[in-house]
Amino acid sequence: MAINRIVLDSFTVFEHVDIPFSSGINVFIGENGTGKTHVMKVLYSACQAVRIDVAFNHKLVKVFKPDQLKIARLLRRRKGNTQSKIIVESDQTQISAEFHNKTQKWEATVTGESKWEKQLSSLTSTFIPAKEILSNSWNLEAAADKNNVDFDDTYIDIITSAKVDISVGKDNNARKRYLDILQKITTGTVLIENEKFFLKSNGKIEFSLVAEGIRKIALLWQLIKNGTLEKGAVLFWDEPEANINPAHIPVLVEMLLELQRSGVQIFVSTHDYVFSKYLEVKRKQTDPVTFYSFFHTEAGVTVEQNAYFKDLKNNSIVKTYDRLLEEVFNKNLGD
């Protein structure tokens, strides 16, 4: 398993959390502002830090983009808080970062980076942001390098990952099965020309002219096609259900379950009842799937976990749907 635990002390909305993870699919739910995406960005930064050309502390500020790239701004803003610590563990080793309210730029103290790089050197990771970006990919990386645009690294990195073509020869059976399923939804394949993305279906269509939900599915198709999502990879996906036709959610869920069965560890954040319930319904008894509920307390955000969505005690999605059903029931009685 690539990532099995995170500990955050006085970091953004968290006073202290210690979260163990599943080797399969990890589903984060909770209201806005409870730090779901923050946890995924920390984990993604740690995964990227297995590369010898990527430093953990620098990647943190590149994905969070605090003002003037000052990591000190990621300290939880509460009276008395002066020190923050991050620990990310795999089943082999761990990496940590510590900084305080006077730390300059991204100069946090990082521990365990050399061993982290050595033990996890073959790890690949991908972060799919909530907002589709491939339709704006042309020249974006160059513009970002010159500070002409202000996107965090998750957007720049996903463009780079989508452009990579490391597949050789014919697709293996598993990959072909995934691609055939997704192609029924996208009704085409992804084509890259002159750093621009197109959907190839009875000719080529600019990504900007394709529905955003279809573009997101096409991105998943491309990542599977080019070998980015293979055994041993880690996938982070922020709100996969956003802008996707609800009719396609079951297929998307089945794809994620198949990916984890093939050895991909997955982290997703969601606000969607249908997506969450389909994960619960379609999973097999042997599928390692864990749900995490992020919620506010006086001591900061707390995280509850359970193997089943329905058994979470602090479930903001279910509470909202229960309120809706009650209002519908009352309205029907009133009529």
What does this structure look like?
The protein is an alpha/beta fold and 335 residues long. Helix content is 35%, strand content 24%. The protein contains 10 helices and 14 strands. The longest helix has 19 residues, at 316-334. The protein is globular and about 60 Å long. The termini are far apart. The mean pLDDT is 88.
Quickly list its features.
335 residues; alpha/beta; 6-stranded mixed β-sheet; 5-stranded antiparallel β-sheet; 10 helices; 35% helix
Compute the number of helices: 10
Mean pLDDT: 88
Helix content: 25-40%
Structural class: alpha/beta
Looking across the biggest beta sheet, what order are the strands in? 7-11-12-3-13-14
Characterize the overall form.
globular
H/E series, N to C? EEEHHEEEHEHHHEEEHEHEHEEH
Q: Tell me how many strands there are.
A: 14
In angstroms, what separates the terminal alpha carbons?
55 Å
Q: What's the alpha carbon Rg, rounded to whole Å?
A: 20 Å
Low-confidence stretches: none
Largest beta sheet, briefly? 6 strands, mixed
Assess the beta-strand content as a share of residues.
15-25%
